[in-house]
Design a protein that fits this description.
Strand order of the largest sheet of chain A: 1-7-6-5-4-3-2
Helix content of chain B: 55-70%
Number of helices of chain B: 5
Number of helices of chain A: 5
Order of helices and strands of chain B: HHEHHEEH
Number of strands of chain B: 3
Shape of chain B: elongated
Number of domains of chain A: 1
Structural class of chain A: alpha+beta
CATH superfamily of one domain in chain B: Winged helix-like DNA-binding domain superfamily/Winged helix DNA-binding domain
Helix content of chain A: 25-40%
CATH superfamily of chain A: START domain
CATH class of one domain in chain B: Mainly Alpha
Distance between the termini of chain B: 72 Å
Oligomer: heterodimer
Radius of gyration of chain B: 27 Å
CATH topology of one domain in chain B: Arc Repressor Mutant, subunit A
CATH architecture of chain A: 2-Layer Sandwich
CATH topology of chain A: Alpha-D-Glucose-1,6-Bisphosphate, Chain A, domain 4
CATH class of chain A: Alpha Beta
Strand order of the largest sheet of chain B: 1-3-2
Order of helices and strands of chain A: HEHHEEEEEEHH
Strand content of chain B: 5-15%
Chain lengths: 170, 125
Amino acid sequence: MPSQSASARKTAEMQADVPAETGFVLSVSKRLKAPRALVFKMFTDGAHLVRWFGPIGHTCVECVVEPSIGGRFYAALTGPDGVLRRVAGIFTEVTPDQRLAFTWAWLDEAGQPREPDLKTIVTITLEAQGDETELNLRHDGFPSAARAGMHDKGWESSFECLAQYLAERA
Amino acid sequence: MDPLSQTFACLADPTRRAILARLAKGSISVGELAEPFAMSLPAISKHLSVLERAGLIEREREAQWRRCVLKPAPLKGAHDWLGDYARFWEQSLGRMEKYLEELQTGGASDAKPKRKRKKDRRDAS
């Protein structure tokens, strides 16, 4: 069947079979030795946010936080490489001291979403545990492929296998 | 579709992930590759075409021995990309934890460490 693959290639529009409604979920939990109201402020008060937002070695040089539905979330970070990275979103949920959600998109130099096909959302829930706070952060809506990274054992082992392969090539 | 989305679209399918995992162990022929799957050769070929189009594999063209070879570059891109997000939040929240500690232990003058009233513990005696 020499010509089979050529025709198969033509008809195989398989991107369509990707379940778009379920995305990858990145989930991080942290128990913080601080009252819930203060932890909430970490996200909703720009003066606090700039002090911690961004990975190690990054500095948050500017931020806009308008914690009401439809309000903006914006932060500009400089990394150890000196590159300016900007992220922007819109608040979709604000329950004082309890819950926050905002959309998330990295911006390019022109201020446009870097990955326009990608709609991700960050949801933060805070639970008071005495004087401490249990913070749960979910980052949702990554391409569905990666979702399996968390939920599907088969994928996990495949991914490990691939990660090892990549490490060997590095 | 941008290359990263294309990689993820490819990886969304369990059969394609299994194919890639198998190829990560070494190149094999299409026939051998199809063996563990309860699928016809044309069905597997279809998956291979999708993977090939996304630049994730390469198929050699000899009719008898069509070996499939994994191409790591797009996978590495996807892997790094996801890792970036995980690192972003883990490290940010780590920094938040430190900042909260500073804030509550005298970093700010009005932020006296709040002591909770000692709980009355009921002793057995």
